[in-house]
Fold each of these.
Amino acid sequence: MTRKTLSERRARKLAQLDSLKAQIAEMEEEAAQHLGKLAVRAGLADLDLKDEELLRGFKAMAARFRRDGAGNGPEQSPQAPEPGSQTGKEG
């Protein structure tokens, strides 16, 4: 059995890389379609909003649900009152 040349091995790895990139693009497209359908069901398609406004809203929503420390998770959300607090009431 002869050993493959560097060019042959490189070409094989590049083909594998292209295949993986195509799979990632397909997964992203499926996720985009799924999220788009949910956005339409939520009524976002009926709003006259600029892309920048929608993107800010999506980023805020992602931060609200993120739990990896990169954003505000549910336990860190500045909009959510802490358990037992009486937000808006003096006492």
Amino acid sequence: MSLAISNGIDQFLADHGSLPLPTDNAPAGRDLDADTGSASGLVAVLSGKEPADSSTKPQNPGGVDYLEGIKPAKQLKPTRAKSAPPWANGLMTEGTPPQYSIVDAWGNLYHLRLDTDGDGWVENPDPLQVADGRTKLKKRVIVWSAGKDGREATWEDNPMSWD
């Protein structure tokens, strides 16, 4: 799913000539980190569901769904562990007005790094690859999640949109 999110952002860039931006903060002349949680507003932009009463100009005025291949999240069975996420593997829609998020197969949000400084490169968040000398990635956007163990620091199980 990290690749589907990345591809959706690439298509948005091709159509609009700019990257979609989270509505909760603006880039400051450097690459921007965001996530697929509802607070960032990025999923609403990419799915063409920006709020109509928004006080800012819509980024996706045509309402194109750049995430059309992402299925609705599945509700998980309740567990005794209170920290277990209730949803997994897809697009979540909750609340009124609707709030949109995307979670991985284990209920974790995806993380994104957007090339908002426009140099065509982003810093590599994977310390294992950085230790091997791959400090930057020639990408406009990268997407990853914390994987099965829910810990971002253990990169062996983290789904990534790059090789």
